Amino acid sequence: MKLTIKNILLSAAAALVLSGCSLDEEPYGFLSNENFYKTASDAESALTYVYSVNSDIEYYSRHFIIATEVPTETLTIKPDAGADQHALDRLEVLNNNKIVEDMWRYPYLGVNRANAVIQNVPATADMDETRKAEVIAEAKFLRALHYFNLTRFFGDVVIREEQVDSRDQVGKELSPKEDVYAFILRDLTEAEEFLTTKRVYGRANKTAVWALLSKVYLQLASAKDTGVEGYEWVSNANENYTLAANYAKKVLQEQSEFSFESDLMETWNVRNKATAKEHIFVSATDRNGLIEGEYTKLPMLFMPWAEGAPEVVLPNGTVISGGGWEHLWIEDDFVANYAAEDRRGSLEMIVNKVTIPEGGNDGADLELVYPGGGLQATFPMKFLDPDMVGQQATCDTPILRYTDIMMVYCEALGPNAETYALMDQIRGRAGLSPLAGGMSLQEFRTYILEERGRELAFEGKRLFDLRRTNSMERVLGGEYGKPMSKGIYYFDIPLIEVDTNPGIN
């Protein structure tokens, strides 16, 4: 995503606010709906602008991970982090929490950009009709993704089908989840019709649509099945489980661009990001970008503090330039949840020791160890870029991953020979023995929830998984002793929205 494209569209967005003004002369100096959506290049630039919100600091490149992992048992925050982040850790979330506010603001920013494309691209004359339909379909996929995030965070939310470009359009009431999910499913089924399974790095295709549909239907099924408040309107859990399994099966069997990666570490090799087998859809970044959002500093949140060190060496030999902020810490109790032989909890995925070459007072190598030896906490190997430029990293936040969809399929379908075999693939990659058979349906689904926690740790899935299975109290409170008081299943609508939107009482 080039800076020039982003700046052009920012100018366009600013111009839209002025679209109601009366000007004596034609304003040649800025872009608007009237003078921008003329060519295929305009449409592609507008779509790039829709995608670009995903990698903003306040969304997938930083705050989304904090909002979805810190409230759970996986991550905690360094002591001198902001009060809003510690409030998330304690699940004492008020409606003025800035991190949570971003989980409202940035999805709606993406929705508004998507709406602009959906509204205006159909009238673009100088454009191949097939590609035009694809651009609109990609925008609908992104709009559905943002609304899926919004309703999982907040429950009832405001549905906006049109671009907001003036203050008098702001006032609109909340829509019930039933209407929000209908809107999400409509966008995704319409997008499915016009996209192919061809892979384009950082972009949505039909496989991404199938993957997201499987997760939406699993959300409905499991929330209804387990009695999550607010999902009483879902008519039949089993029907939604079947739909979730059907769409997940399409991902597993009806495309060839993505597959299961047998090498655990290769999944997170940023040097092969464009061809990574597992990453169906990501928030794409590039360390050579000009502004944060094009590149990311996400690795800095996890990497250990090593002041003045030109590089640190991980136990597997990976060399990382300099140190990080040591901002996000893996919870000790969560690390203990991995079996001793589980490679995901060993030094391959969770690191408790680094070496600073010649970092000691005598010029010898200096080892920093957790606990008690210079590291504040363990940190994951998932978010590291050995080729960082200063603090600028290529580190894509995974949004839809193949192994995630494998587990969606297994959870939705229940225990049988096929689903046991799929779960054993995941276990085998982690160095674990095959599952013992004979689980009941409930035992199998409870096991998969646990396995998702270990496999998808730190990827922005855990809060949603615990919420949709009505497991917040049982897991966080009962198993980990985590205090919980407010914002357990839904965050309050942010105060800034309540104050500015007269449609919300």
Automatic annotation (TrEMBL):
Q: Which family does it belong to?
A: Belongs to the SusD family.
Q: Which InterPro entries match?
A: SusD-like_N, SusD_RagB_dom, TPR-like_helical_dom_sf
PROSITE patterns named among the record's database cross-references: PROKAR_LIPOPROTEIN
Kindly give the CDD domains that the UniProt entry links to this protein: SusD (cd08977)
User: Organism source for this protein?
Assistant: Flammeovirga aprica JL-4
| Cellular compartments per GO CC | cell outer membrane
What keywords appear on the UniProt entry?
A: Cell outer membrane, Membrane, Signal
Protein name as it appears in the record = RagB/SusD family nutrient uptake outer membrane protein
Domain SusD-like N-terminal intervals: 77-218
Pfam families named among the record's database cross-references:
SusD-like_3, SusD_RagB
Subcellular location per the Swiss-Prot or TrEMBL entry: Cell outer membrane
Keyword Isomerase in the entry? The reply is no
According to the entry, every stretch annotated as the RagB/SusD domain falls at: 390-485
Q: Where is the signal peptide?
A: 1-24
